[in-house]
Every structure is written in C-alpha cells, then in structure tokens.
Design goal:
The structure holds 2 protein chains of 2 kinds. Chain A is mostly helical. Chain A has one domain: ABC transporter involved in vitamin B12 uptake, BtuC (Orthogonal Bundle), CATH 1.10.3470. Chain A contains 11 helices and no strands. Chain A is globular. Chain A starts with a helix and ends with a helix. Chain B is α/β, with parallel strands linked by helices. Chain B folds into 2 domains: 141 residues, P-loop containing nucleotide triphosphate hydrolases (Rossmann fold, 3-Layer(aba) Sandwich); 63 residues, no CATH class. Helices cover 34% and strands 26% of the residues of chain B. In chain B, helix 3 packs across helix 4 and helix 6 packs parallel to helix 9. Chain B is globular. Classes of the chains: A mainly alpha, B alpha/beta. At the A-B interface, helix 6, helix 7 and helix 10 of A face strand 5 and helix 2 of B.
C-alpha cells in the first residue's frame, strides 16, 4: 500500500495534521508562535547532526529542539534580555550554525530546499511509522496534561492555587512541541512548521466559540490543508510544505468570510 | 482556637521579599473549618500577597506555610483572561475540576448568573464576571475558599446577597474562608477573625477587639473603628456606578 510515494506522503501528512491541530491551538492561546519558530529553526542543526552521526533525523531533531528550549529557559532566568530577543538570538544562531555545519559536510549531498520547505518524495515507510506512533504518543500525553495545561493557559495563578501543577504541564508541553517539529520536519520543512501549527488553529478560532470546537476545527482544517496541499503539490510540481501552508491560508481566508456573515446575522 | 485537626491552612511568620523589599512579612494566621478569617488593610498592605502565600502560588517565601487540604476554591482579585481563547462560562466552570451539569447549574443559580451559562466570558460585565468567578470557586465544594475581594464591581443589592451567600456556604459546606475585603461593614457581620495588615500584622482578633485596637484606629481612622465595633450597617458611604465605595463626610 505504501509503494507509491504519494500515498506515503498522504499518510504522513494526515498523521501530522491530527497532532498539529490541538498543539496549534495551544500555540495560539499561549502566544508561542515565535517559540515554535525558534524550535523549528534549531531543527536544522538537529538534521545536520543526524547526517554526520548517522542518527535517525526525527530523533536527532527532537533532542536538539528540546535542548534549545532548555537553553531558552536558562537564558530567560539568567539574563535581562526580553523574551523575543532571546528567541531571535537562538533561532538565527542555531540556523546559522546548522548551515555552517552543512558547509563542512561536503561528503554528503544535501537537499537544502527539501529541508527548508518539505519534500514529499523523501517520506519513507519508516517516517510514516514515526509520525503515527510518535503522533499518537504526543496526543495521549496532551490528553493527560490537558486540564492543568488549559487551566494555566486561562490563568496561571488559579491553576497553581487549586493544585494543578501548571509548571510541570508547561515543561511537558515544551517537549511535545519539540516532538511535533521532529516528526513533521520532512513533510512540511523547518521554515513552515509553525505555519502548519498556527494557520489551521487561527482559522478555527474564527469560527468557534468553545475550546473543544476550536481544537476540532483546527484538526479538520489541518487535514483539508494537507489534502489540498499535497494534491496541488503533485499537480503543479510545487514543494509540499508551501503547498500545504498555502492551502491552510486559503481556508483561513474562507473562515474570515464566515465571520463577516455571523456579524451580519447578529445585526 | 479549637482543635488542631480543624486547621486547613496555617501561616507561621510568613513573608515574601522582592528585590530586597518586603512585600509582606511576619504573617501568622490560620484558617479553620467553618470559620471566616478576613484580611483588611490599606492598598499595598500585602493582603493579596498574603492570600497567595497561603495558596502556595509563591515559591520563594520566608517563614512557613502548611496546607492541610487540596480542595481549594480561589477567586483572584485580578484575572485577565486572554480573549484569544474562545471560552464560555460553561467551559470556565469546569476549568480545574470536572463537574456534573447539575452542579454547574446549582452554583450559577446561587450566584444569580445561570442565564449566562452559554455566554462568552469576554462579553460579561465586571459584576457578572465576578459572580461567575465566585460560582466557579464554590461549585467544586472546596474545603478552603480564598476570596480576594469577591464582590468588586457587583451592584449594591447583589453585594449584600453575595456576602450572605458566602456566609451560608461557610456554614453549609463547613469550609474555611480566607476573605479579603475593603468593605468594613461586611467584615463585621460574618467574620470570626480579623487580621489587619500593613506590610505586617498590625493587629488581629475578633472584629470587636480589632476595632478597639489603637493601631487599627491609626490606620483606618476613628470612624472606621466605630463601624466595626457597632456591627450595624450604617449608610455612611455611597456606591458609585462602577461599584466603588465613596465615604460620605
């Protein structure tokens, strides 16, 4: 069944969309777009390490992104620099170091475009297993920490006061972010993973009035984006990542029309 | 004070320092089952800070806090819910605890806002939101309620009704309440124990004892002292439209 590259890409993409849907909602709610970007940029470093040490790419990216997240927390505690400056510092320096390392690895032929923007031809059967098993694990853990994570997203002190341990939930969520980036990098590419996280969720925000609805619509939006994106990627021979994100943007614009309608109805 | 195992939370010489400045220090108090302890004091005297110390929100504190329950309901003084979240009153009610629909309805009915159940949290007025906050805190049948100015922004009649409700809840659930209030009138009618703060504990005791205390008089003035000791609700103040209280001269 997985003989055809397109079927493989489709399965991988669907798996990714199921996970980016709910995580993307938290990225929007907790204002973590740039944090996601930083982790994704650092993924390039993870990829180069994977190539030079012959590791599994997803595993290596997961480790590097988690480390970058850890460094970020340390820097936040120890310097007086604002959060966005630290994010920019880590994002661009890890991207730069990653690119420099690639320059040294002359014995390996890199498809940089594929790394940055995703490549459906590169998805292997092994990748599908990683996406589906890893994705299922991410969703399971997210379900377990949902209550404290969501409560502390609404109000940290309330969650802390009523004994939900929001700090632990936040730490676990950071690891989940690193994990989703690790499993979706081949598909979407490291420059566009944050787009895959936030655009379907932003679309969902426009048309939902409860958190659960937003998560559901976000997943549906992600799935549609993957389907439309991959088919047009095949049809027009465009890179898979930009095609998927462009499809997500298209859905977002549609959701804006829906807002206009509801406003009209209310008046 | 009655037996030891009725104590829900106990602060012993507790305080917190930020940038070498004490926010509050040397606070000792305890809240028992079925008792209402009220913190009073001027702005910036450390009332909310003391409540947060009792709740364990602050990690780096001086002194000692012991909590004997984890069934806690909290109404914070300030709460800024991020409106990027699509959140209805209903979703907010089950934020920290899974409740049955009837339990949600009951709590919302008690605070008089059942009709708002499906409304978006962002569309509520200040007073409505305050009632929802109180409903959420009592709906989980807590053993300890920490109420930080729970009726701010609530209209005048509502204010009296809600304080009555708080007293009722304390009796019915036999839960302990740590209350922060600006309204000295309310402090009197229900409170068992008053702690007067001004960066440290000025004085504490029953409402009458505190009213007689000279430090209390110095802090709040002679007039306030009369209010506390008389126990009656005299209309010496007016409520402006935003719910704040203005003293008549």
């Amino acid at each position: 069944m997985f003989d055809d590259f397109f079927i493989r890409a489709l399965f991988a993409g669907i798996g990714v969309a199921f996970v980016t849907g709910p995580l993307g909602c938290f990225v929007i709610w907790r204002r973590l777009s740039y944090f996601g970007d930083t982790l994704a940029h650092s993924a390039l470093l993870g990829v180069t390490i994977a190539y030079s040490l012959e590791f599994n790419i997803a595993f290596s990216v997961f480790i590097t992104s988690s480390l970058i997240a850890l460094i970020l927390v340390q820097l936040q505690n120890k310097t007086n620099l604002p959060g966005d400056a630290l994010l920019g510092l880590l994002a661009h320096s890890s991207l730069a170091v990653g690119l420099v390392v690639i320059g040294f690895l002359t014995f390996i032929r890199f498809d940089i475009m594929g790394l940055l923007f995703g490549d459906i031809l590169a998805v292997t059967v092994n990748d599908i297993y990683i996406i589906w098993f890893g994705g299922a694990l991410i969703l399971l853990i997210l379900k377990l920490i949902w209550k404290p994570l969501f409560a502390s997203t609404v109000n940290y002190e309330l969650a802390e006061a009523e004994g939900l341990n929001p700090d632990r939930a936040k730490a676990i969520f950071t690891i989940l972010m690193a994990a989703i980036i690790a499993i979706s990098i081949k598909m979407v590419g490291l420059l566009l993973i944050t787009g895959m996280l936030i655009i379907p969720a932003a679309m969902a925000r426009n048309i939902s009035d409860s958190p659960l609805k937003m998560v559901t619509y976000s997943i549906i939006g992600g799935l549609l984006s993957v389907l439309i994106g991959l088919f047009s990627s095949l049809e027009f021979n465009t890179p898979s990542g930009p095609s998927i994100v462009a499809a997500a943007l298209f859905l977002f614009i549609l959701s804006l029309l829906k807002i206009k309608q509801t406003i009209k109805l209310k008046n | 004070m009655s037996s030891e195992n009725n104590i829900l939370v106990k602060l012993k010489n507790a305080g917190i320092r930020q940038n070498d400045k004490w926010l509050v220090q040397g606070v000792s108090l305890e809240v028992e089952k079925g008792k209402i302890v009220t913190l009073i004091g001027p702005n910036g005297s450390g009332k909310s800070t003391t409540a947060k110390i009792a709740l364990g929100i602050y990690k780096k504190i001086e002194g000692n806090v012991e909590k004997f329950t984890d069934k806690i309901g909290y109404v914070p003084q300030k709460i800024s819910v991020d409106w990027t979240l699509p959140l209805r009153v209903h979703d907010f009610m089950v934020l920290t605890e899974n409740l049955k629909d009837e339990e949600i309805n009951k709590a919302l009915t008690l605070t008089g806002v059942l009709n708002l159940k499906n409304k978006n949290l962002g569309n509520l007025s200040g007073g409505e939101f305050q009632r929802v906050l109180l409903a959420r805190a009592i709906s989980k049948k807590p053993e300890l309620l920490v109420l930080d100015e729970p009726v701010q922004g609530v209209d005048f009649t509502g204010e009296i009704a809600l304080y009555k409700l708080i007293k009722e809840i304390s009796d019915r659930l036999n839960c302990g309440i740590l209350l922060i209030s600006h309204d000295l009138h309310t402090v009197m009618s229900a409170t068992d124990h008053v702690v007067c703060l001004n960066g440290h504990v000025c004085c504490s005791g029953s409402p009458i004892d505190v009213a007689k205390n000279n430090e209390y008089k110095a802090l709040f003035g002679e007039q306030a002292s009369q209010i506390l000791s008389r126990y009656e609700h005299k209309h010496d103040h007016v409520h402006s439209s935003d719910g704040s209280i203005k003293q008549k001269n």
